[in-house]
Amino acid sequence: EVDLEERLCELDLRSDSDIPEVPPPTDSTPEILKRALSGLSARWKNWWIRGIVSLAMISGFFLIIYLGSFMLMLLVLSIQVKCYHEIITIGYRVYHSYDLPWFRSLSWYFLLCVNYFFYGETVADYFATFVQRREQLQFLIRYHRFISFVLYLTGFCMFVLSLVKKHYRLQFYMFAWTHVTLLITVTQSHLVIQNLFEGMIWFLVPISSVICNDITAYIFGFFFGRTPLIKLSPKKTWEGFIGGFFSTVVFGFIFSYFLAHHQYFVCPVEYNSETNRFVTECEPPELFQMKKYSVPPLLQAVLGWETVNMYPFQMHSFALSTFASLIGPFGGFFASGFKRAFKIKDFADTIPGHGGIMDRFDCQYLMATFVHVYITSFIRGPNPSKLLKQLLILQPEQQLSVYKTLKSHLIEKGILQPSLRG
């Protein structure tokens, strides 16, 4: 027994050098682009590839925005699945030689379970009227959490049955790997969609701020970078970090001003059960109505203005942009540390010049959590329309009970007269 304990301790003290190396990703750059840039140095070739592909992705993103909120949700779901695939594939490649049973199948099964739970919660929350009209969906929604638990429990039992002697510790590593990956990808993408339902502006400004910071930090670092920022990412510089910060704050302030003009971007995304479509029509909230603000005395001497007209949301955009440029990059540093731990350059080779999807969205997931917390802490208030949808689901006697309670409360407040008949 003593020898067994000592042997297990030795196994637990394995160094990083014992981790099998992951094969480097192949170059996915199109041949036509390679030939066009063949005369350039590697540094400038990478610059042009990243620039051209970035413009293509931004153009595609604008097209999806034009197609509407439903297409944006599909985009978020697609990115989530691809990011999950890239991380899980790294685990599979690293430990493939052990030939673990059911690892890949169980990983995708757990992805389906967790998505079923989160998106089922969204359906019950935002599509209550639609669900109420379909009996088959009412059963699924009523017992949604129980069904989700049973599905997860099935996967849990399958994992236990798949345990193989001599590989117990490794299999539990992979079990933890899968769950941490689910936490990073599925939970965060669910928060992105929650932010989208608050209004497309809460989706576009944070995401665009991260993209702006990524691009401008790269540009400032490429041309002016001299001072290394962090050892995890040797190419990151203080010049790029500071330049990216100021550029992102200015961009967020201006971009918010243009978006706040349009109902399409500021109104909450709601589902219209009569037309079976998502709608973004409303009276713009106070947050998106122009107001006059007094300029601080110190700035009055510089700008020559005593007052300025702006949207209240532009003040919030400053907080979002600041987080995107100061804290958001730490998501990228975390990803860099992860890649260094497994001796890989990129998560995949999906995007020429950029690496994998996860390489481009490592900061976005951290941003999504911040925006959700920010909205719930400082912005969101009681939502009458959402509450009304929940009341309509209740049984008639329950609705009557709510009505009587609300009527008594309004009479006590003096808002209704006691003689009022309802």
Question: Any overview of this molecule?
Answer:
With 422 residues, the protein is mainly alpha-helical. The protein has two domains: 1-100 and 164-381, no CATH class; 387-412, no CATH class. 69% of the residues lie in helices and 5% in strands. It has helices spanning 2-12, 31-36, 42-67, 69-94, 103-126, 128-132, 135-142, 144-161, 168-197, 200-224, 238-259, 263-266, 297-303, 312-326, 329-341, 357-379, 384-393, 396-413; strands at residues 228-230, 233-237, 270-272, 277-279, 291-294, 307-310. The protein has a two-stranded antiparallel sheet. A two-stranded antiparallel sheet has the order 3-4. The protein has a two-stranded antiparallel ribbon with strand order 5-6. Strand 3 (270-272) and strand 4 form a beta hairpin. The longest helix is centred in the middle third of the chain and has 30 residues, at 168-197. Residues 1-17 have low confidence and may be disordered. It is an enzyme of class 2 (transferase). InterPro entries: PC_trans, PC_Trfase_euk. Keywords: Lipid biosynthesis, Lipid metabolism, Membrane, Nucleotidyltransferase, Phospholipid biosynthesis, Phospholipid metabolism, Transferase, Transmembrane, Transmembrane helix. Its EC number is 2.7.7.41. One of its GO terms (cellular component) is endoplasmic reticulum membrane.
